[in-house]
Amino acid sequence: MFKEVHFRKKIFIVMIALAVICGMAVLVTAILLFNNETGNIQSFILNETLITIAVIFVCVLLALYISRIVERQMEKMVKDIKQRDKLLQAVNYSAVLLLESNNHEDDEPGILTALGLIGRALDADRTHIWRCQTIDGDLVLEREYSWHSDAAVKMAPIPKVLIQSRDFPNLEWNEIHLKGESISGSIANMPSAYREFFGALGVKSVVIIPMVVDELLWGLFCIDICVQEREFSADEITILKPVSLMISSAIQRNSLIKEMDEANKRLMLMLDSSPLCAQIWDKNLNTVDCNMAGVNLFGFADKFEYLSMFLTCCSPEFQPDGQRSITKLLNFVKLAFEEGSCDFDWVHLLPGDGSLMPAEISLVRVNYSNGDVVVGYTRDMRDKIRLERRIFHLETEKERAYMDALTGIHNRLFFDEAITRTVKSLSRADNTLSLMMIDIDCFKQYNDTYGHNEGDECLRAVAVALSESVLRPDDFVARYGGEEFVVVLPNTDEDGARAVADKILENVMELNIPHIKNKAADCVTVSIGVTTGVVEHTMSIEYIVKTADHALYDSKNNGRNQYTFSPF
Fold this sequence. Notes:
This protein is of the alpha+beta class.
């Protein structure tokens, strides 16, 4: 490849030199002929011929120049595509590490691996996760995770903590990043305040993406390039933004899970050593005694106040299931005396502010003062419920990362992860898989004719039509990119795949979206490439997708608005 490019460059230089020499020779000859006082018709003809030759050489030179420009543009385009694909692969693998990891006790290796993948994909020297906090009105950045390339290890280390008033007083990062804006590009093209700050850290190019959670600046995802200057494309920034969301979600999710696990361990320890709210009842539901943990939990002054007021002041009249509190408690105490123990959920009323406290109560029968009593242990569940709600919120955010914002169906990230799991599962028993690549016919012409707003509506409508064409729980539709979609049908043979393809063509046609520039019909249609085969453990996902993609191109070349089947 290098030798070919080098040879073409030599040919290009030689032809330019010949064209210049010939042009100069023609120009000199023409001047001599025009200055000849005894010029004749032969001289005129010769002059015209030489001028024609000069024009031809100029045209050749211009053509060579244009071809060189096109060649450079193509080389840049190929380089950009390779760089984007490399970054996408790193992002996909990072997502697997961050979102599917079952190891909640030590998330650091997965996060560091993800940072390394992203850094190497961008030829970066350092990648960081900075935790943002506001202390006394001052923005403080604490570096929680870092990855360094081999070359960057020898560079001067960057600080563990950065304080705005001290280290970057002229950079309004909090205001910029809260708007969701990123900072990227060559430091040389940035304002002087940025050049001064990053120059002191040895950075030549940088990407800083905000990690905003619940409208607060949680942290910063930073990528440093210290050896060379480069600009980052809009596509690269778009690809990197979900990564920052996934990393922050993974850190917070694992942190909350650790907090909840630690809270559960503390609750168990408290239960064993009786620091929980504990009280003793006799068979008549008289409160015999309690501990100081119960006194403090319900805000009483002392044990006497607790024993005299607990039954009348510490529970609402009715429990959430509609039963009267005193009757329900008496029934559970009787059950504990009969069976030795019982557990149940309860809602207490806190006398101090009248708020409700969800709790778990365990009743245990023990021998006390020459007779049986029931000891009740009360666990305050408010913190646990708050943590569970927070984790549910983070899981919801994770699901959003898998959805395409425009069409509302699954996105490319979901497809890449789901197809990996599906192929792995099907290959264990040599089961069948069908996969479809779908493209909206002449969609560029549709956008040019009707505008991008109508184009977006068209994509949404087609996505709905595709989703309504697959009915089984394991089947799924995803937006592959642009106007291209993918349908995955596990355990579906050729006949089943053909039936679904026919249904898709029919459902899209029934949308009856006008499209005067469509070569296949006067409305919006789609072309489909279908592939089916038995999944083997040695088979690559790229091969399956490529087979369906080739079938898709056959459908488009054969007139569009149809499907082509090709087994893999």
